């Protein structure tokens, strides 16, 4: 793809042309400047905070070195949070991608009522978890929810009480999180499928390939960029997952469903341990960057001629 | 827009199609369940909810919870319902979405059609901004809003939302414009069209799908935000999510779940309408470029 | 036509409402989390009182997490240099903010109205900082209550338990009668609320040395192991679905006779009253067995921030109105708590309220009035939450009593550091 920048240099002597040269940068500059301050400036600020003994408000009069980080990694709740993040993010990303792709492929089979089904799959993304969390909590509650209903319908041995069990509760968070985002992933895959070149498929069909083979060998591999986009969106949602945990379990039973985002919020604002909250935020940022930067590098680096 | 892969579909057996329909319908039920729980319980009197069976249809139907959530429920000391807060949210969401979408479009235009040395780095840095946890920017943002005299105003909220939306809007437009033929731009340039003329006359008219995607994304995120809304609003600029949260989160009061569910659906109506009305364009917009990375 | 007139009137009212009625500068902005139902309605009384004196009330409600969301918003407001006039706050949060030097001084009105004499000393420890009044206490909740279904109690012998052993006997009988003996919601703060009462039942000295003084010997000693054993015993009486349940749903279990009793602060009474139940006939309120004569409290206060001179007058007016005995009475009748002033007549209160007022006065004069750990009146937020972690992990069976006592010492030491 030929870039404008590769065209012949314009006459620099013409003041109007100079303005035209500068204009694009001038247009971009304000956005970039606020991002520099409001994102990168604040990250540096948080990094400083994480080395300070700040409690209620930022306080740069006491320095504790890596003290906050040491305390962080000795705190049982943080260890629980990291374990949960690992379980949660792997399951969430894998299940969302799988369901999203499957639904997209199914919806792509000239389905009657697609226009009706699609918004049903998509709408959870539009809702805030402040109250849908309550609906999920009820639904999963064995006393009033699914288990109760199944038993009252005569299936006496039915048991589904994960949300009450420390070992299993994190999986119920996955169920609700998948509910919220898998429709969005479906939309991304559906868009990807609709963009596949017809000719390739026709050629394969002429060669006698079965439907399954066409999907496995040709179409799904073509979805690679969609997988990557979905991965980035889902990974950042997973690391930032806070609302739904608060609404569903608030970290319980016991401390079984703490996540890093919950930890950061609770320590910074609930426990007046701003220094430790900042340390957990920095660790979170580092985790996010290790995921995103390689992706960015491959995307942006790859496209440059 | 003939769906390419759909051509595969025609060869499916009836049996396979039946399975496909069953799966699709099962998933529709999964997605609808929480909404069903909310709707059904919002139409029951509180006593019936206390008795326990939350999946059952109401024995005694009532719309009182809806009326209460709309106009008489206690939100803070005033029994005004959610009604007055819609306008605050609108005043906040519309300009914030407009500004971030417009800037995102311009940024995308510059980053793809007026490339310069280091543009990838600039874009990469803007993209990383999408991933910052908002809790850490709270205190420093508050300081800046205070210094600029925007603390507690809708303008301040608009500014903050616009800034933290820039990463995503720039990403969407940049990926969309990336696929736009650069030759057209160059031809227009040779014809003497200016920077803004090219944008307005050539790029903007064909940006419909991506504008839909961006607006949906931004509208939903800003409408549903609670953290910024509760921290940066003043007594007369409280957005709807904060009001909804105030309705459902009483500390030591009686919890009227039916009113809570009714309120939640009311508060979600604008975003639901946006999704349902523009859902088809959403997929089209994603298709047109947003998913390409 | 009538419709048109009405809507015109409504529009007119809409525009008229924000117009300053009195002097533009006489207004208070109040950040609080009493945002719904009865408590918000109760606060409205204060708003009306102020408005009748020409002070406009600018409402800034932020609910969530028992005030956590409001405290988050408060940080943003203070950082922006734009603090509200008055902020609802609890215990050590007030002290923490006072240490930042951002709070106002209510000395003028407190001296005039003689608050020193009528507010219990235990509350003054928080409402005053360096000898200056900085907050106006609204109420006193006491947390060591047990709410028993009368029907379930009658079926279990009819005598309200007065000692731990009697309590266990009653719980056993309720279990034999086929109901859930203890209605409880498994949230950290609810677990900790019971823990407060259990520790207090092992002696007021023990409560003071462990919860208030945070003495490591008391926190990790044999008595603490016994306290955790008692928690484990109580755990055996809750139903299997207790985890994550809201406290009011636990109350509902008692109201409907599905559960025998609930151990919860006095705000639970509102749930019983709202369901049409009468104290004495439908439900019984007793102090947690073994804590008679002692009270663990939690007091809602309005902390006053440093404001410009133009807003001082309204701020003082608000403080005076909060401590007005008539308001204290009417507010607390609705809220289920008891007045923060000890000289408010108890005539408007029901039996449980009267008992609460009497208990508070006795505990205060007898030196048995202690801040509740679970509600932020015994130790700062970091320590309180560290204790939550241990108590809730133990209650959910993740660790045994000995390990819990040991973990408590470590967690408290880490949080203090």
From TrEMBL, chain A:
Entry-linked PROSITE patterns: ABC_TM1
Family statement drawn from the similarity comment of this UniProt entry: Belongs to the binding-protein-dependent transport system permease family.
Protein name: Sugar ABC transporter permease
PANTHER family linked: ABC TRANSPORTER PERMEASE PROTEIN
Sorted UniProt keywords: Cell membrane, Membrane, Transmembrane, Transmembrane helix, Transport
UniProt GO BP: transmembrane transport
Membrane topology: Multi-pass membrane protein
InterPro entries named among the record's database cross-references: ABC_transporter_permease (IPR051393), MetI-like (IPR000515), MetI-like_sf (IPR035906)
Keyword Membrane recorded: yes
From TrEMBL, chain B:
Membrane topology summary: Multi-pass membrane protein
Subcellular location per the Swiss-Prot or TrEMBL entry: Cell membrane
Keyword Disulfide bond attributed: no
Entry GO CC: plasma membrane
The ABC transmembrane type-1 domain, residue ranges: 86-278
Regions crossing the membrane: 14-33, 85-109, 121-142, 154-177, 198-220, 259-277
Keyword field: Membrane, Transmembrane, Transmembrane helix, Transport
Main localization category: membrane
Domain of life from the UniProt record: Bacteria
A single GO BP: transmembrane transport
Matching CDD domains: TM_PBP2 (cd06261)
InterPro entries linked: MetI-like, MetI-like_sf
Family statement: Belongs to the binding-protein-dependent transport system permease family.
Protein name in UniProt: Carbohydrate ABC transporter permease
UniProtKB/TrEMBL annotation, chain C:
Keyword Repeat annotated: no
GO cellular component, as recorded: periplasmic space
SUPFAM superfamilies named in the record: Periplasmic binding protein-like II
Coiled coil segments of this chain: none
Alphabetic keyword roster: Periplasm, Signal, Sugar transport, Transport
Signal peptide as annotated in the record: 1-24
Subcellular location: Periplasm
Main location: periplasm
Origin: domain of life: Bacteria
InterPro entries assigned: Bact_solute-bd_prot1, SBP
Family per similarity comment: Belongs to the bacterial solute-binding protein 1 family.
Job description of the protein: Part of a binding-protein-dependent transport system for a sugar.
Protein name: Probable sugar-binding periplasmic protein
Organism of this sequence: Aminobacter anthyllidis
């Amino acid at each position: 793809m030929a870039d404008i920048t590769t065209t012949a240099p314009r006459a620099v002597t013409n003041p109007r042309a100079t303005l035209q040269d500068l204009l694009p940068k001038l247009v971009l500059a304000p956005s970039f400047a606020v991002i520099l301050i409001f994102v990168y400036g604040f990250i540096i600020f948080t990094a400083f905070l994480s080395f300070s003994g700040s409690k209620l408000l930022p306080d740069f009069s006491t320095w504790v070195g890596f003290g906050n980080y040491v305390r962080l990694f000795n705190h049982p709740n943080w260890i629980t949070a990291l374990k949960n993040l690992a379980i949660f993010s792997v399951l969430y990303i894998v299940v969302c991608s799988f369901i999203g792709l499957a639904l997209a492929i199914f919806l792509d089979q000239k389905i009657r009522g697609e226009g009706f089904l699609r918004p049903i799959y998509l709408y959870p993304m539009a809702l805030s978890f402040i109250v849908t969390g309550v609906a999920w909590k009820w639904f999963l509650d064995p006393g009033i929810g699914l288990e109760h209903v199944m038993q009252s319908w005569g299936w006496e041995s039915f048991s589904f009480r994960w949300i009450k069990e420390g070992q299993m509760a994190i999986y119920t968070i996955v169920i609700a999180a998948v509910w919220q985002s898998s429709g969005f992933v479906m939309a991304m895959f559906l868009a990807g499928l609709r963009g596949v070149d017809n000719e390739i498929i026709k050629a394969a069909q002429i060669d006698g390939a079965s439907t399954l083979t066409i999907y496995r060998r040709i179409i799904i591999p073509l979805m690679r960029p969609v997988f990557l986009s979905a991965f980035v969106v889902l990974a950042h949602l997973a690391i930032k997952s806070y609302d739904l945990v608060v609404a569903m379990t608030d970290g319980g039973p016991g401390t079984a469903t703490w996540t890093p985002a919950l930890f950061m919020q609770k320590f910074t604002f609930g426990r007046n341990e701003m220094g430790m909250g900042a340390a957990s935020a920095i660790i979170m940022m580092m985790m996010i960057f290790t995921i995103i930067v390689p992706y960015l590098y491959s995307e942006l680096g790859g496209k440059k001629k | 827009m003939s769906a390419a892969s759909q051509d595969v579909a025609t060869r499916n057996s009836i049996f396979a199609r039946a399975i496909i329909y069953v799966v699709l319908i099962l998933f529709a039920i999964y997605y609808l369940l929480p909404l069903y729980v909310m709707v059904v319980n919002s139409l029951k009197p509180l006593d019936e909810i206390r008795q326990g069976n939350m999946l059952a249809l109401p024995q005694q139907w009532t719309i009182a919870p809806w009326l209460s959530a709309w106009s008489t429920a206690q939100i803070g000391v005033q029994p005004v319902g959610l009604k007055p807060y819609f306008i605050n949210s609108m005043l906040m969401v519309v300009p914030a979405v407009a500004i971030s979408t417009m800037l995102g479009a311009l940024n995308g235009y510059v980053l793809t059609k007026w490339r310069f040395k280091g543009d990838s780095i600039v874009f990469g840095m803007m993209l990383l901004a999408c991933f910052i946890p908002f809790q850490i920017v709270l205190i420093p943002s508050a300081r800046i809003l205070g210094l600029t005299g925007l603390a507690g105003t809708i303008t301040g909220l608009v500014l903050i939302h616009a800034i933290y939306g820039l990463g995503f809007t720039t990403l969407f437009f940049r990926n969309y414009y990336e696929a736009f033929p650069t030759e057209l731009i160059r031809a227009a340039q040779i014809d003497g069209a200016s920077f803004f003329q090219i944008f307005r006359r050539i790029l903007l008219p064909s940006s419909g799908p991506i504008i839909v995607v961006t607006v949906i994304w931004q509208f939903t995120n800003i409408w549903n935000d609670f953290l910024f809304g509760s921290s940066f609003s003043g007594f007369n600029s409280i957005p709807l999510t904060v009001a909804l949260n105030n309705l459902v989160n009483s500390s030591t009061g009686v919890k009227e779940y039916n009113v809570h569910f009714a309120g939640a659906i009311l508060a979600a109506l604008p975003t639901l309408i946006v999704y349902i009305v523009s859902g088809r364009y959403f997929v089209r917009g994603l298709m047109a470029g947003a998913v390409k990375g | 036509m009538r419709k048109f007139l009405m809507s015109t009137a409504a529009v007119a009212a809409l525009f008229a409402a924000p117009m300053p009625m009195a002097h533009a500068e006489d207004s208070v902005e109040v950040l609080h989390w009493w945002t719904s139902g009865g408590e918000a309605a109760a606060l409205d009384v204060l708003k009306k009182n102020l408005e009748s004196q020409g002070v406009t009330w600018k409402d800034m409600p932020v609910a969530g997490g028992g005030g956590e969301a409001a405290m988050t918003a408060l940080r943003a407001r203070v950082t922006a240099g734009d603090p509200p006039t008055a902020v609802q706050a609890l215990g050590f949060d007030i002290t923490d903010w006072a240490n930042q030097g951002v709070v106002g001084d209510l000395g003028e009105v407190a001296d005039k109205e003689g608050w020193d004499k009528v507010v219990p000393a235990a509350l003054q420890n928080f409402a005053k900082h360096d000898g200056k009044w900085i907050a106006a206490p609204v109420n006193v909740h006491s947390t060591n209550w047990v709410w028993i279904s009368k029907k379930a109690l009658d079926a279990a012998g009819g005598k309200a338990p007065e000692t731990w052993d009697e309590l266990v006997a009653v719980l056993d009988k309720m279990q034999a009668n086929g109901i859930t003996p203890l209605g409880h919601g498994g949230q950290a703060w609810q677990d900790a609320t019971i823990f407060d009462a259990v520790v207090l039942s092992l002696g007021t000295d023990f409560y003071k040395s462990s919860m208030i003084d945070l003495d490591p010997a008391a926190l990790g000693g044999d008595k603490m192991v016994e306290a955790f054993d008692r928690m484990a015993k109580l755990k055996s009486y809750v139903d299997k679905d207790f985890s994550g349940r809201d406290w009011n749903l636990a109350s509902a279990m008692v109201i409907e006779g599905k559960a025998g009793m609930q151990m919860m602060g006095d705000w639970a009474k509102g749930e019983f009253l709202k369901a049409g139940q009468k104290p004495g006939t439908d439900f019984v309120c007793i102090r947690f067995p073994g804590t008679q004569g002692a009270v663990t409290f939690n007091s809602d206060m309005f902390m006053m921030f440093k404001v410009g001179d133009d807003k001082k007058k309204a701020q003082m007016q608000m403080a005076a109105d909060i401590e007005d005995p008539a308001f204290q009475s009417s507010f607390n009748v609705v809220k289920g708590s008891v007045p923060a002033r000890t000289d408010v007549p108890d005539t408007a209160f029901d039996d449980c309220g009267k008992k609460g007022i009497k208990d508070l006065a006795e505990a205060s004069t007898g030196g048995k009035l202690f801040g509740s750990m679970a509600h932020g009146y015994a130790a700062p937020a970091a320590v309180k939450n560290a204790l939550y972690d241990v108590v809730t992990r133990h209650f959910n069976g993740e660790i045994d009593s000995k390990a819990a006592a040991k973990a408590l010492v470590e967690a408290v030491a880490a949080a203090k550091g």
